[in-house]
Design brief:
Radius of gyration: 21 Å
Largest sheet: 6 strands, antiparallel
Shape: elongated
Structural class: alpha+beta
Strand content: 15-25%
Number of strands: 6
Oligomer: single chain
Number of domains: 2
Length: 173
């Protein structure tokens, strides 16, 4: 869960997002808060550890800031450090890759469609492959509709199940 985009922030909650990918993680039994130890806004903002302690920290340091967040949603690493730099920050955000495609209209062959739409996927390649999730927006908020879609390399992909996940990719022929 990412840091909220507005409202009051907690230094401890920001530290938990950076260290454990969960802004909402607040155990009261001592298994989490005590393991985090002392926290430093500077260490969280720069991925350091000289002013922080706790077993949640890898090698005594906070992990590096996730640069998949837009610059406006992550700390800039420069003093003065401020908690407000963490608004909308998400430690486990995955960068999406844009690609051009076209959805086939009902009853038409997807391979004959004109490429006219930009979509985004969470895979590592230039184009989506099986099991990648495809979105209609660069923030990854809206999953692509079920259907068949043309790609720019004489292939097409299919999405079933309503979750935006690519079921298969095959050649146009």
């Amino acid at each position: 869960m990412a840091v909220p985009s507005s409202g009051s922030l907690s230094l401890r909650s920001i530290a938990l997002e950076v260290a454990t990918n969960s802004y909402a993680f607040h155990p009261v039994d001592g298994t989490g808060l005590s393991q985090l130890g002392s926290t430093s806004l500077k260490d969280m903002s720069t991925g350091g550890g000289t002013n922080s302690t706790g077993s949640f920290l890898t090698s005594g340091s906070f992990p590096a800031i996730n640069t998949a967040n837009s610059a406006s949603n992550r700390p800039d690493g420069s003093a003065p450090h401020a908690m407000s730099e963490f608004y909308s920050y998400d430690q486990d955000l995955v960068a999406l890759t844009s690609f051009t495609s076209a959805q086939a209209e009902q009853g038409l062959d997807s391979c004959e469609q004109t490429l006219n739409q930009t979509y985004y996927h969470d895979g590592s390649g230039a184009r989506p492959v099986a099991n990648d999730t495809v979105f209609t927006d660069s923030a990854g908020n809206n999953k692509i509709a079920n259907g068949e879609y043309r790609l720019d390399n004489n292939t097409r992909f299919s999405v079933f199940g309503g979750q935006g996940v690519v079921a298969l990719v095959d050649n146009c022929s």
